[in-house]
Amino acid sequence: MAMVGISGTTSQEMSAPAPAAAGSAQFSSPIAKPVEAPEANAKAQNIQVTQKALKRIYAAMQKEGVSAEQGGLRLGVTGGGCSGLSYSIRFDSEPRQRDRVYRYEQDGTPVQIFVDPKSFLYLSGMTLDFEETLMRQGFNFINPHSTKSCGCGSSFTA
Description:
The chain is α+β, with helices and mostly antiparallel strands. The chain has helices at 51-64, 117-123, and strands spanning 2-4, 48-49, 72-79, 85-92, 100-106, 109-115, 127-132, 137-142, 148-149, 156-157. The protein has 2 helices and 10 strands. The relative contact order is 0.29.
C-alpha cells in the first residue's frame, strides 16, 4: 500500500510491507461504481476507486479549475526511486489517444481517471483509496503487483 498526495509528492508513511491480496484489504470507504470503464479480462483487471478517494479527486478538480467534462486525474508509474518504480498522480486537461478512461459521477458531475497503457501494466487490479487520520492524509495505492516498497516511501518494486 502506498500513500501519495494529490500534488504528486509522496508521503513518508509508505514504508509498510507489501499489501495483502486486494480482497483482504481494508478500505476507508466502499468502492465507487464507474459509469464507464474499459472491459476487464483475465489478464487485465480494472482499477478501482473508493468513494472517499472519488470525493477527494472531485474536490481537488474543483479547486484547481480542471474541466469535469474533458479533464481528469492521471494515474501513472514512472521509473526511478530506491525500489525502481514510483507512482505519479496529477491532473490532465484531456485523455490521450491510447489511455484507459474510467468515468465516475460525483454529485452529478463527471470525474475521469486516465491511465496510459504502460502504467496500466503495473496498476491493473489496483485500488485507489484516500486515508485521512490524525497522523497522515493522502491517496493510498493498494496494488497487488507491488512486492515491496522502500523505506523512504516514494517507490515500489513490482
